[in-house]
Amino acid sequence: MRKEKSKESKLYKIILSRRTIRLFRKIKVSRSIVRNIIDSARLAPSSANLQFIEYLVVDKPSLNSDVFSCVKFGGYVFPRRVPDKKRAPSFYIIILINKNKSKKPDLRDVGAAAQNILLSLACFGLGGCWIANINRIRLRKLLKIPRHLIIDSVIACGPAAEHPILEERADKIRYWLDNNNRLHVPKRPLKEILHYNNFP
């Protein structure tokens, strides 16, 4: 029992400490780790168990540059949090929806899979940025993605080169950079969102 509690505690700490990472260290990540990360996404909950999600991993440097040209980082702090070549992601995970597997895909499946990816990245000491602002037409053409696969989102991945600071704030939603170029991320306090049993 003690070992189980210890494992739960480690996972809980990872969940609490995980933040979106937009600056990365230029270190190659092994494909065995990448496979484990995708495997965690594969095992995420799936509505009616339709399992319509597929994943395209891009880890070739020349193609990484192509993907980078198709995504936009950090809307609230753009362009100050756009990584340069030295701080670019090590690899990208493109989340795809297979139209042949589901006519009306439940996008909650994508959320569950993406969260598993982000938490698995953190478990392996890596960071990630889940991106929906994508030039999908250009990305499809560059990577020759078949038409039956819908490009849902992209997760930029790699070893973190920044450590965003969590702020308990009810009055802000925009993350910001301070004078030392540190990113601050506001989150609504728990007491504002937690309710028990019924409302008054």
CATH fold call of the largest domain: NADH Oxidase
Flag low-confidence runs.
Answer: none
What is the CA–CA distance across the termini?
40 Å
Q: Which CATH architecture of the largest domain would you pick?
A: 3-Layer(aba) Sandwich
E-strand count: 7
What amount of the residues lies in strands? 15-25%
Query: Mean of residue pLDDT?
Result: 94
What is the H/E string? HHEHEHEHEEEEH
Whole-number tally of structural domains: 2
Please describe the biggest sheet, giving its number of strands, its sense, and whether it closes into a barrel: 4 strands, antiparallel
Specify the overall morphology: globular
State the CATH superfamily name of the largest domain: NADH Oxidase
- For the CA atoms, what is the radius of gyration? 18 Å
Record the strand order, biggest sheet: 1-2-4-3
What does this protein structure show overall?
With 200 residues, the protein is an alpha+beta fold. It folds into two domains: 19-162, NADH Oxidase, CATH 3.40.109.10; 164-200, putative fmn-dependent nitroreductase like fold. 32% of the residues lie in helices and 20% in strands. It contains six helices and seven strands, in the order ααβαβαβαββββα. The protein has helices spanning 2-17, 31-42, 61-68, 108-123, 136-143, 190-193, and strands spanning 53-58, 91-98, 127-131, 149-158, 165-168, 176-177, 183-187. α2 packs antiparallel against α4. It is globular and about 50 Å long. The termini are far apart. The model has no long low-confidence stretch (mean pLDDT 94).
